[in-house]
Design goal:
Blueprint (H helix, E strand, L loop, with lengths): L1 H14 L4 H11 L4 H28 L2 H26 L4 H7 L4 H13 L2 H16 L2 H34 L2 H24 L1
Helix pairs in contact: 1-7, 1-8, 2-3, 2-6, 2-8, 3-6, 3-7, 3-8, 4-9, 5-9, 7-8
């Protein structure tokens, strides 16, 4: 049980910090745009990457610094793109209408969620490398129990974030609030891009 809780607590600490993936899911929930698709994709991606890391791939990735550097620059460019888009929406007086209108079909949400997830190097560092390394310290059986705790944290977080945003939408449906949300998302995206490049 202690190993399970360690996996849950560790992953919760990593996942709750605001990032591109969380901002994307939050925005989709607030505008009620296929949030279920985004939640499922995020959970499945976390499960897959965590299991890969626990199985031992984390050490292989850390041995290929060139691959991590390429992922870093691609991820930073994509985060800047998202940041510019958020600032453009925030600059509009009709930010709420723009946000509601700037919806994506199911396929667009799927691809967008995959992009903010898989183009973010921190996803690999957190799930594959860090979770994989920490799980390995619990032995051959314990590492999978640790992984079960990590998966539980992911399920609870993304479900709560996405569908919690849907419920909060009526209270946030004010143009000024939306402009502040979009501006905050833009700042987060550029901040994350800078952190990636600086290291």
């Amino acid at each position: 049980m202690t190993t399970y809780l360690a996996g849950l607590a560790t992953t919760a600490g990593l996942i709750v910090a605001i990032g591109a993936q969380n901002a994307w899911v939050l925005r989709l929930g607030l505008i009620r745009n296929h949030v279920g698709v985004a939640v499922v994709v995020c959970i499945l991606a976390d499960i897959t990457l965590a299991m890969i890391g626990i199985a031992g791939l984390g050490s292989m990735i850390t041995a290929r610094p060139t691959l991590l550097e390429v992922i870093t620059w691609v991820g930073a460019a994509y985060l800047c793109f998202l940041g510019v888009a958020a600032f453009r929406r925030a600059a509009r007086p009709d930010a709420l209408d723009a946000a509601t209108g700037a919806t994506h079909g199911r396929r667009g949400v799927l691809l967008g969620t995959l992009a903010v997830t898989l183009l973010n190097p921190h996803v690999y560092l957190d799930t594959v490398v860090l979770i994989g390394s920490l799980a390995a310290t619990h032995g051959s059986v314990g590492r999978w129990i640790f992984g079960a705790g990590a998966i539980t944290a992911s399920i609870l977080w993304f479900t709560g974030l996405g569908f919690g945003a849907v419920r909060a939408a009526p209270w946030l449906a004010r143009p000024t609030t939306w402009r502040m949300i979009e501006a905050a998302i833009g700042l987060v995206m550029f901040g994350l891009a800078a952190m990636l490049v600086i290291g």
